[in-house]
Design a protein that fits this description.
The chain is mostly helical. The chain is built from 9 helices and no strands. The chain folds into 2 domains: 42 residues, Arc Repressor Mutant, subunit A; 136 residues, Tetracycline Repressor, domain 2 (Orthogonal Bundle). It is 74% helix and 0% strand. Helix 1 packs across helix 2, helix 4 runs antiparallel to helix 6 and helix 5 crosses helix 9. The longest helix is centred in the middle third of the chain and has 29 residues. It starts with 13 loop residues before the first helix and ends with a helix.
């Protein structure tokens, strides 16, 4: 998860960050997401509610951070090819999006995003920005290797891989397996390659 910077002009306390996320995960396991409250997390973590709300604007955002983005993520794999890199990212997203907690939290977070513009901004500047930075790195390497005719918007790569997986798992409720993940990575590779060629041709 991308850091949100400073709160109240002071550096964030990483120990408090970890304690909030660890406690949230424990309570989700014990009581389930629907019964989780910010008061419970604050009491068990030994922090004030204000400390939580400086970091997260809602219960859903806090729980999403703890269950999905609060985990230590592996560095972006450099497999030597665009398809290999996208497949590695797709597999990482598949594991995270398929987790039971994420299946509960995804719809709750989407509902909050639909009615809370401030949460949308925070979500874009933290969770989504961190994911799109990974795709930007993959695209830059592919351009350097000559696999792509030029740069493409990492947001498009994010949509093709993470967006497709999220729709398949949470909306369509498909039984996504590794074969489907590989097919999605192949389709994303072909799509980004074609898009880069189209952009390059339009600049000539």
């Amino acid at each position: 998860m991308a850091a949100k910077g400073q709160a109240g002009g002071r550096p964030r306390d990483s120990r408090v960050d970890r304690k909030i996320l660890e406690t949230t995960r424990e309570l989700i396991d014990e009581v389930g997401y629907p019964n989780l409250t910010v008061d419970q997390v604050a009491a068990r973590a030994g922090v004030g509610k204000a400390a939580i709300y400086r970091r997260y604007g809602s219960k859903a955002e806090m729980a999403f951070a703890a269950s999905v983005h609060g985990q230590q993520l592996p560095p972006v794999a450099d497999t030597g090819s665009l398809h290999g890199d996208l497949l590695a990212l797709a597999r990482t997203f598949h594991v995270r999006l398929s987790a039971p907690a994420t299946r509960h939290l995804g719809p709750a977070l989407v509902n909050e995003l639909a009615t809370n513009p401030d949460l949308v901004t925070r979500f874009q500047n933290t969770f989504l920005a961190a994911e799109q930075a990974d795709f930007a790195e993959v695209i830059e390497r592919a351009v350097d290797r000559g696999e792509l005719a030029g740069p493409v918007d990492p947001v498009m790569a994010h949509v093709l891989v993470a967006g497709a997986l999220s729709a398949a798992i949470h909306v369509l409720r498909l039984p996504v397996d590794d074969a489907m993940v590989a097919d999605l990575a192949a389709a994303a590779t072909a799509g980004l390659t074609a898009l880069a060629m189209q952009h390059h041709a339009g600049q000539e």
